[in-house]
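Attaching the record inline, Q. Sequence:
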Amino acid sequence: MLVIGIAGGSGSGKTTVVKAIKDRLKEDVVVIPQDAYYKDSSNLTDEQKRNQNFDHPDAIDWDLLCKQLGELKEGKTIHQPVYSYISCSRSKTETVTVEPADVIIIEGILIFTCKKLREQMDIKLFVDADDDDRLMRVMARDIRERGKNVEWVIERYSRTVKPMYLQFIEPSKRYADIIIPQGGHNKVAINMIINTVEKALRKDKKQ
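Structure, as predicted:
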């Protein structure tokens, strides 16, 4: 079993890299998104939810994420939480059943800020991209998938996304084994990574 961490700023192209790895590897691959482990905020007022800082490490339930990753590594099935950006709440009845696999990908903007989680990873990748490109992708995603408007996205980007990127996410780049410039468009880097993963898997299976 190989655990791959893929970090990078919002809109950097992490999803594209994850998809490329999944499409190319013949082994079973499961993806564990950091976003599923946001702490429940259903008790907050609408105004408090509007001011919720999703880009700060304190917003993530690291204990549960590390525990469930450990269980997958032990060959156990987990019940991953389901989080809604619309209501800022974690479902009390619905979960996603995740089975162990040859490759486990942990994906999220803040995953390298948690030492305990980093120590469970075999390969750490950081997806880098231009700030303007990231803003455009964040804007398109939040409007399309999260029901937000342009004004909300720009305000949130200025208030939390960019400051938190500079304070927490960009500095976590130093923990990466491989940095992928130009985000998910860097086909050469992605091919090199997939080759590295395949080599590591072969080595792991021989042991």
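The two ends are 11 Å apart (CA to CA). The beta strands are 2-8, 29-33, 78-84, 89-98, 103-107, 123-127, 178-180.

More tomorrow.
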